[in-house]
Design a protein that fits this description.
The protein is α+β, with helices and mostly antiparallel strands. Helices cover 50% and strands 18% of the residues. It folds into three domains: 98 residues, no CATH class; 43 residues, Roll (SH3 type barrels), CATH 2.30.30; 79 residues, Alpha-Beta Plaits (2-Layer Sandwich). It has seven helices and eight strands; from the N terminus they run αααααββββββαββα. The strands form two sheets. The chain has a five-stranded antiparallel sheet with strand order 4-3-2-1-5. One of its GO terms (cellular component) is plasma membrane.
């Protein structure tokens, strides 16, 4: 019965219908290609939230174009009767269930990703020990670019069984931390004030966002953590470098020594 349903569904397909469907698919492909090239390029010329919004529009527009293409193409090729739809989607269900199980798992997770948005283009995330900026979100995978400029492909199915850390969560606010391991027997309040000034006077700091310096006592000395926000998330590594270099200079001038090797894990 299923085979007869499929034969009946495609019985009315003509060469003219195939050409029309092909034309629609080509137009849709061209639109998707143009969006995937133009919007990231435009986003690269702007900063802040507009950049994140433009990047987040890419997977959404691509999904809308794919859905619209399916809605247009199916009636061109197949008479939209109940029997035909049951036959077509029944066959697709079997194919997905037996031949494309893993792909379907990632595809469904991709739909969930677009709906729940645990990460978006422009977000800085860490998944399974890999950290980087989300550059692209497809129907099955996401691509992140690491600080070493390597591209890591992450299947959306990772959503089901992995922890995902999102540093800026759709905003342009990303906290950075610079750490200092210092010898004991110094004026803690003085060092806290100096490191706070280092963060506030950095030209890369968002001074309207909170700047915090915390200290903890360790067996080997004192551990300081300077928490602040850079002007742009993509500047985070230069920002931490700037805080570290400036902080080290100020502490050296104050005569505060560094420990050579903190205990592993501290």
């Amino acid at each position: 019965m299923g085979d007869l349903g499929l034969k009946d569904a495609f019985a009315t397909v003509t060469s003219e219908a195939l050409l029309q469907a092909l034309l629609v698919i080509l137009i849709a492909s061209a639109l998707v290609f143009a969006i995937q090239k133009a919007l990231p390029k435009l986003a690269g010329k702007v900063g802040g939230k507009p950049r994140l919004y433009l990047l987040a529009m890419v997977p959404l527009l691509r999904l809308l174009i794919i859905i619209a293409t399916i809605i247009i193409v199916v009636p061109i090729l197949i008479e939209p009767s109940f029997e035909n739809m049951v036959a077509i989607f029944g066959a697709l269900g079997l194919a997905v269930g037996f031949a494309l199980k893993d792909y379907a798992n990632s595809l469904i997770a991709g739909i969930v990703t677009l709906y729940e948005m645990p990460y978006r283009p422009g977000d800085w995330i860490e998944v399974d020990g890999k950290y980087g900026e989300v550059r692209y979100i497809g129907s099955r995978t996401a691509e992140i670019v690491t600080p070493d400029d390597s591209v890591v492909i992450i299947p959306h199915s990772t959503l089901w069984n992995s922890l995902i850390s999102n540093g800026n969560d759709g905003t342009d606010n990303l906290m950075c931390v610079a750490e200092f391991y210092l010898e004991p027997n110094h004026d803690v309040r003085r060092v806290l004030s100096l490191l706070r000034d280092v963060a506030f006077t950095s030209p890369m700091t968002r001074t309207w966002m909170p700047v915090t310096v915390v200290v903890s006592n360790q067996p080997w000395g004192m551990k300081y953590r300077v928490k602040a926000y850079p002007n742009e998330p993509k500047e985070q590594f230069h920002f931490v470098t700037d805080l570290t270099a400036r902080g080290a200079g100020v502490l050296a001038a104050e005569g505060v020594g560094f420990v050579s090797a903190p205990v592993a894990g501290d």
